[in-house]
């Protein structure tokens, strides 16, 4: 047999549901080749090489721990009883966390297809919408796609290959006026190409600028930052990521987060 790309090899061996699922797991650092974590889906692997997928975690994705850490830190963000929206749901790690913490319903929004973990498909409290671009979402199109007329009052998001600043207006417009937003900030998708080397934002000042861009964009929409932490786990390729809690009722002006931003991005801890 010929060598295959890693994502294709995983699908060919039946270790994943699809190549898109494989890409998600590879990016999350959940795939090893001969015992070494690999985050490049295009890597060519031979039939003799050993491929393994991390399935020990109770969560359907490693990314779930990012939201767990954020909700543990942002203790005033209630989940129980709320209508939540998970934007960029992928395999459903964030949705799973929300359901475990008592959300009465989760609207799982994903631009791709066939990524949700099988164990979540039959969960009555989860409404999956695939092939839906959140950047162009409105309250009306969200209600039409989900069949839920009520606007979500808790929004979480883990998005890739798009800046949060371009999606925030749609998230704000489609949510309840007093909604809480717990969002992952990925500097590699916020700074220009000049700030990224081999897919990684290495300079602290560039990471700080990425956070400031998101906080400023949110402030223009009437949302202030009420909390900001380092992501409990690093992103793909070792990128430092951050989680922000935005709120119309609890948030502060971005200028009040300058020192916190500098400290977080300098330490990378």
From TrEMBL:
One of its GO terms (molecular function) is RNA binding. SUPFAM superfamilies: Alpha-L RNA-binding motif, S-adenosyl-L-methionine-dependent methyltransferases. Its EC number is 2.1.1.226, 2.1.1.227. GO terms for biological process: methylation. It is an enzyme of class 2 (transferase). InterPro entries: Hemolysin_A/TlyA, RNA_MeTrfase_FtsJ_dom, S4_RNA-bd, S4_RNA-bd_sf, SAM-dependent_MTases_sf, TlyA. It holds the Pfam family S4. Keywords: Methyltransferase, RNA-binding, Transferase. Residues 4-65 form the RNA-binding S4 domain. Belongs to the TlyA family. NCBIfam families: tly (TIGR00478). This is 23S rRNA (Cytidine1920-2'-O)/16S rRNA (Cytidine1409-2'-O)-methyltransferase. It comes from Lysinibacter cavernae.
């Amino acid at each position: 047999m010929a060598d295959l790309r890693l994502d294709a090899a995983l699908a060919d061996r039946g270790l994943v549901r699809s190549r898109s699922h494989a890409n998600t797991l590879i990016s999350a650092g959940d795939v090893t080749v001969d015992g070494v974590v690999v985050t490049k889906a295009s890597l060519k692997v031979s039939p003799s090489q050993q491929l393994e997928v991390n399935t020990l975690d109770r969560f359907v994705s490693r990314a779930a721990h990012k939201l767990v850490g954020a909700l543990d830190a942002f203790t005033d963000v209630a989940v129980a009883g709320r209508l939540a929206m998970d934007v960029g749901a992928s395999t459903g790690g964030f949705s799973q966390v929300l359901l475990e913490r008592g959300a009465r319903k989760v609207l799982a929004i994903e631009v791709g297809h066939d990524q949700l973990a099988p164990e979540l498909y039959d969960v009555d409290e989860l409404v999956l919408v695939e092939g839906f671009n959140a950047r162009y979402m409105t309250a009306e199109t969200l209600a039409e796609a989900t069949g839920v007329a009520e606007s979500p009052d808790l929004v979480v998001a883990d998005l890739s290959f798009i800046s949060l600043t371009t999606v925030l207006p749609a998230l704000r417009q489609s949510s309840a006026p007093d909604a809480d937003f717990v969002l992952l900030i990925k500097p590699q998708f916020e700074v220009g190409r000049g700030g990224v080397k081999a897919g990684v934002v290495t300079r602290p000042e560039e990471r700080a600028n990425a956070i400031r861009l998101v906080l400023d964009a949110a402030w223009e929409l009437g949302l202030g930052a009420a909390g900001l932490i380092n992501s409990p786990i690093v992103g793909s390729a070792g990128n430092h990521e951050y989680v922000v809690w935005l709120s119309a009722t609890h948030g502060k002006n971005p200028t009040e987060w300058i020192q916190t931003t500098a400290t977080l991005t300098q330490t990378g801890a």
